[in-house]
């Protein structure tokens, strides 16, 4: 079962231009899926905090949303890539300089109860995981900082 988290944590609403850009950048391989994705974004961007049944008031729309998410051509990588691609295009057009600062932290949990469920780090007996953070800084004096962790969640710090 796929886990989905579709939200825009930086802005609570998206403009029609942003929605069009994101849906155009989506590479589902089917124009109908791109059109459905655009309709979904329009609905969800107005009601970010709502669940799917709350956002899509009619059963037919709710069912269409669930069918979209269960389609084999739709996955979180395509959705996130289209959003990120659209965001990068927007930032490049607005700013002359964009910094992308990357850090990967090794979280060593050797000796903890759940170490059997963790992967290896530098050594076979060293258990834990890697946490990746990517920070974008754009604009004059780099006032806007976007932190994106490995799960794809974004946080805006002013």
Give a verbal description of the structure.
With 158 residues, the chain is α+β, with helices and mostly antiparallel strands. It folds into two domains: 16-93, Orthogonal Bundle (Serum Albumin, Chain A, Domain 1), CATH 1.10.246; 95-157, no CATH class. It has five helices and five strands, in the order αααααβββββ. Strands 1, 2, 3, 4 and 5 form a five-stranded antiparallel sheet that branches. Strand 3 and strand 4 form a beta hairpin. Helix 1 (16-25) packs antiparallel against helix 2 and helix 1 (16-25) crosses helix 5 (76-94). The radius of gyration is 19 Å and the shape is extended. It starts with 15 loop residues before the first helix and ends with a strand.
CATH topology of the largest domain: Serum Albumin, Chain A, Domain 1
Radius of gyration: 19 Å
- Which H/E pattern describes the elements? HHHHHEEEEE
Gap between N and C termini, in Å? 37 Å
Number of strands: 5
Tell me what portion of residues adopts beta-strand conformation: 15-25%
Total domains: 2
Mean model confidence by pLDDT: 76
Kindly state the percentage of residues in helix: 25-40%
- Overall shape: it is extended
The CATH class name of the largest domain reads Mainly Alpha
Q: Main sheet, how many strands, which sense, barrel?
A: 5 strands, antiparallel
User: Could you say which structural class the secondary elements and strand pairing correspond to?
Assistant: alpha+beta
Number of H- or I-type helical stretches = 5
In the CATH classification, which architecture of the largest domain applies? Orthogonal Bundle
Unreliable segments of 5+ consecutive residues: 1-11, 141-158
């Amino acid at each position: 079962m796929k886990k989905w988290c579709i939200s825009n944590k930086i802005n609570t609403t998206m403009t029609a231009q942003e929605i069009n850009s994101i849906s155009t950048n989506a590479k589902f391989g089917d124009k109908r899926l791109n059109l459905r994705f655009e309709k979904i974004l329009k609905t969800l961007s107005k009601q970010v905090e709502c669940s799917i049944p709350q956002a899509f008031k009619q059963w037919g729309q709710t069912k269409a949303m669930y069918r979209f998410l269960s389609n084999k051509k739709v996955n979180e990588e395509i959705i996130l890539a289209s959003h990120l691609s659209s965001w990068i295009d927007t930032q490049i057009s607005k700013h002359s300089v964009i910094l992308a600062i990357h850090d990967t932290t090794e979280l060593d949990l050797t000796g903890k109860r759940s170490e059997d469920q963790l992967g290896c780090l530098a050594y076979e007996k060293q258990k834990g995981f890697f946490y990746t953070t990517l920070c974008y800084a754009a604009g004059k004096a780099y006032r806007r900082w976007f932190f994106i962790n490995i799960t794809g969640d974004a946080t805006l710090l002013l």
